[in-house]
Amino acid sequence: MSKVRIEVVHDLSMSLGESPVWSVARRTLYWVDINRGAIYAWRPQDGGAPTRTELGEQVGCIALEDTGLVAAAASGILRLPENGEAERLADNPEWQKGRGNRFNDGRCDSAGRLWVGTIDADETSPTAALYRLDEEELTPCLTDIAISNGLAFSPDGRWLYHTDSLSRRILRYPFDLASGTLGEGRTWVDLDALELPGVPDGAAVDSEGCYWSALYDGGRIVRFSPDGDLMAEYEVPCPHPTMVAFGGADLRTLYITTATQHLDAEGKRRWPLAGSLFSLPAPVAGLRESVCRA
Fold it and tell me: Which end of the chain is less crowded, N or C, counting CB atoms within 10 A of the terminal residue's CB?
């Protein structure tokens, strides 16, 4: 386990903190608490506590947009301008009267397309999918998924990474940036083979093409080389890290969201920092997050 000091940025006790995204232009970190339908924003240079906006429904992930954010809420994808009313870009085809599959993990590719996956309502059956948003139309690209997660792109745009968390495998797909199409996916990392705990959750790729994955119920962040070799493990002071994002002026601060869900009263006493936002100094810079052009 790598000996790097992980710091508490904000003690928040989030139910399901997720989807940290750093805006270089705004020098702002955004993230969500999925279960509470909250979007956070924080400018490190200003200090103080983050601001919090209530969306009124669960929000699986967010992406940057020129004038604000795009949010994949439970019922559909919304454009959230900094000043103005929310605009619905697309409905969630799997959401039916609050009993369907909500949106989960997502990210924009460098052409500005939003990719977003869903999660099975019971988190057990392969009823979810991964979608691509093209001009306000959702196209299913991968199906028969239980928990769509771990979406990231290689620096050269040639590969898309994705996981169905319950499989404990991370797959890599040939990716054509011009058309937004995927080739045949192959297992790239197998947690069983590496004897790693937990399941692969949210992820990010650094400037060297290495893939950083939060291992939910594994209490750690892991870094894999472009060849899929395990390079480093970083212990997190709670069992449920959910996702990572590179931020800061030099993109060398790794922010980590975490969760309190699935912890009983004893678990919360044992892990009092669960649900907090953490950070660690990264050995290399991350990649600038792409902006949604939907």
Answer: N
CA-based R_g, the chain, Å: 17
In a domain, 1, yes or no: no
Beta bridge partners of 71: 62, 78
pLDDT of residue 273: 97
Sequence-distant (6+) residues with CB within 8 A of 153 are: 107, 109, 110, 159, 160, 161, 175, 205
Confidence (pLDDT) at 99: 75
- Which residues form the catalytic set? 201
- The yes-or-no verdict on residue 98 having pLDDT over 90 is no
Residue 107 structural domain: 7-292
Contact between 259 and 240 under an 8 Å Cβ cutoff? The reply is yes
Q: Which residues contact 89 (CB under 8 A, 6 or more apart)?
A: 70, 76, 77, 78, 79, 133, 136, 294
In a domain, 253, yes or no: yes
Question: Can you tell me the mean pLDDT for 56-61?
Answer: 96
Instruction: State how many domains the chain has.
Output: 1
Q: Say if 13 falls within a structural domain.
A: yes
